[in-house]
## 1
Amino acid sequence: MTGDKAFRTEFSVKGREFSRAGDVSCRIKNLLKDIGIDAGTVRRLAIAAFEAEMNVIMYARQAVISLAVTPEKVSIIVDDEGPGIPDINLAMKEGFSTATREMRELGFGAGMGLPNIRKNSDVFHLTSEPGQGTRLEITVCLDGSRP
Amino acid sequence: MTQAKQHAISINLNKCTGCVHCLTACPTQAIRIRDGKARVIDRQCIDCGECIRHCPRDAIESHTTSFSDLQRFAYKVAIPATALYGQFGNSVLPYEILYALRKIGFDHVYDLSAICELYIAAVEEYLTEHAQPRPVIASTCPVVVRLIQRRFPALSELIVPFEPPREIGAKILRSTLPAALKLKPEDIGIIHITPCPAKLVSINHPATMKKSFLDGAVSIRDIYPPILDILRKKDDTAIMRHLFPDSSMSGLGIGWSISGGETRSLPKFRTVAVSGVQDTIHVLDQVESGLLRDVDYLECMVCPDGCVGGPLSIENRFLAKSRILHLAKKAGDKSVIDRSEIRTMYRENFLSFQHPLEPQPSAPLDADPAEAIRKAGLRDEILQRLPGKDCGFCGAPYCATLADDIVRGLADIRDCPMTWKETP
Ligand code: SF4
Ligand code: SF4
């Protein structure tokens, strides 16, 4: 919980940079492996981080993704500057997507993003200020401990 | 003098000049220069052979079986990788190559194209029976299997649980030859002819069975010159055709040595074929991030363009590929296997792994999670102090690798000359 016991790092992601899609989540994933987090948990976090990174690339101007790891839990916070989400409940429905046709043709934005992130995290917290940006906080507990 | 044989490759320290070509070529950062010579870190090497391709001094040697090793067998069988068919001139046909192997001294030569077709037919059964998980990943390239075990351990369960064609072929021979020949099983040597050094590792240290059905792997490099000598003589055409009739070769299996060879036989499924080590790592990263779940079958071959680009092949891979494509086109979609037989083999688990593939995740920074977390932070701090030039002078391929080695206690920050001006 306390700052000195945690490993922290930050990554920045730019909107529309489709060519770098997956870079940050891949780095997060490798960090988690180096720390010795078990393969199954790494995979859940990799999926969540990838979806979160894609959301930034598709919809936001830019974002900072922060990672914090303690022996008890891994948390990822994505703070973006962008249009925000007007109706969070609607956005959380599986299959709901505002992806443009171009994005869909590229295989992005099947409307799985947010529900998939929630499915792969233990704590999921989403707030948004329309016109300003979105803040997504997710936590995955280690050692099977639940909050 | 060479290093010990845990792996498919070793560095000939007499030839190695400690240049940095192999350092950055290695996709898993398994090489360091120590005391002026390249060293391989065993637990990180996946036996891909990239270093062999990049060494300008031929100092990286592969361990394959030599001809003299074969003399201990009373009866010798060769099972060549189908990549061998692309290694010789345009006019040279598979049966001539198989016959040349006979002339060299193999008592029996077994074509793998039919077994390749058998394997993929079984994969089709498997995909039909198991709707999940996806994508299922091919088990044919032993480097991919090793890469997944070590670098993508969570994907181990996605590998199709069938032994690759070379092992299935050897298993069939093992179960029939001793009785037919009235020989003791240990007197029969079944040898793969291989375009890559990884096969010998998969034979000596099989990942999914107790003991391999193969007894060794001779490299295409070594066997090429004697085959060529025989081909030049161009005799016995009638006997050759009789021994290895075209009709026994599978049109679907003959193209397996090029990327897409497997997926071609699965028209009913969504498939993706990837080749080359970097692209393979990239696509596996994507699978780990949850992509490609709508893909049924993923074929990965770490060599560029597939086994035709194997590090121990001789022919330029573009020419080899063109020849294989030509052979495959000529053979068309000719099938030589009996579907109902495959189903029986599948039901009886004749093709199956003996035990599941075990993930072998690489070692974390520390066994104690709190300590590993501390070291991850320390590693970032050290990386900040390094110049970021990735010059290789310290013996590690990248500054980040040196930082990692330092926190693991394998290197010292003073290995980097650019930190020398710092106070110690
Ligand atoms: S065989 Fe591949 S993994 Fe092993 S040292 Fe050579 S390049 Fe690296
Ligand atoms: S692609 Fe083929 S030749 Fe290359 S390592 Fe894999 S099995 Fe061997």
## 2
Amino acid sequence: MTGKRDWSEKLNPVVRHMPPSGIRRFFDLVAEMKGVISLGVGEPDFITPWHIREACIYALEKGYTMYTSNQGLLELREAIARDLDLTYGVTYDARRELLVTVGVSEGLDLAMRALLAPGDEVLIPEPSYVSYAPCVLMAGGVPVTMPTSMQNSFRLTADTLEKHITPRSKILLLCYPNNPTGAVMGRRDLLEVAEVARAHDLIVISDEIYDRLTYVGQHTCMASLPGMQERTVLLNGFSKAYAMTGWRVGYVAANADFIAAMTKIHQYTMLCAPITAQMAALEALQNGRESMQKMVQQYSRRRHLVVQGLREMGLPCFEPGGAFYAFPDITPTGLSSEEFAEALLREEKVALVPGNAFGPSGEGHVRLSYASSLDDLGEALRRMARFVKKRGVQVRAVVNM
Amino acid sequence: MPVPSKSVDKEILAILEENARISLPEIAFMLNMDVEEVARRVRELEERKVITGYLTLVNWEKVGEERVCAFIEVRTQPQRDVGYDAVAERISRFSEVRSVRLMSGAYDLAVIVEGRNMREVSNFVATRLATIEGVVSTTTHFVLKTYKQDGVIFENEEEDRRLVISP
């Protein structure tokens, strides 16, 4: 017997049949190339501000190396509660209504596992972040995606939501400012959606990881809308606003019943988030406002450059109001989003993410992160302009950076 | 999104403080403004001496150029009507002097002097600075190495460690 046994049949069928992330092929391609300018990265290009790193080092020096409470350091939870109160006017009890998690990713997983019974449906606006549907599937739920489009500024309307609701609908999963489109939903939009959620007794999981990266108007916190706090599971974290992606600290704010259920799963799996990362997060909340604002200012400047640059090279681009992504329409080139991304990478060495990685309604777009230096952005836009011009797109002007 | 008018000047200043070489069209592009309007505002900021100059920070060591820098604590005799200003202004005029600041504490003026070698700086302090009328005493501290200057870390080798593609 030379062949090895195929153990994949032993795998959980849900996991076995789950397609790999749509950008896997890209990783392999990019790995072989040198001199690539990457706009494919979904994380800040800033390094965590020094005072936050320093707080972590100091915590280690002082010997903070042990477990924390399952729910996270009380001091951190209190700081989070204060921050939510100050920023959005929503009040949470730090002892019963907050849970510190290993990034928003864990918070999302906990929320799904705590809430979903087999067959329950989760409504997700699409294009959507790549983890949402798999997370629902792994928790035994059924993801129901609701297409949004550039014509509607990639917002979810109450009508669209209403049309997708069935007797099995249980959760509405929102992410605004949105990855990958950069769309934001204003207070009025959210009020309409919230009304439908209340009428159909939906729980809203609101992933607000990009809340501080809002450039147009004020971010509206779902839990702050009338009657919504009790049915909202608010997810947030430190990765994007404080450039702390690798630290893996997030939190869940929700009513005490939800938090108690999530804490059960959390204590049997993660136990607690790393203490040093929690100490760093505390420092970020206490003293990080200024450094955060500086970073946000930088993103805002780059955003304008990128959107303008894309439009001038003949690619229609919706104006993103938050996060750090632009999601231009690449159909004028006649290429599919995968063809576009692959050819651009091969010919011009610019990496970005094909829109269909975020679901079928992302087809015809690519996601481009502007969390890169102005120099890189300018060069990438120049290369892109050359690329689309070769495909017969009328280039009005080339960015001169 | 057009930047609200009252903060435009501050936006321009922040951009220029970070990169003095950035062009006016680039600033206009970033702030969604007309180039002429940006040019007008920059000119006005220069005229009002809000922008006092455009400098390049050079790490001379890297091109093998020897430069010696010294911090000089200067005690002076304040003069009637003009206080420390007259002495400070006289010191400021020397090309060897990079900066002059009036200080609180044990001495009056903090002066930074730059020269090609220690002897040049010592000579300058002994023959030009210490002999100015009103200068009571000087204490010279030579700079051994510059790690950071005007907000810029000289040996900053931080690189982008992010994955090229991420979701």
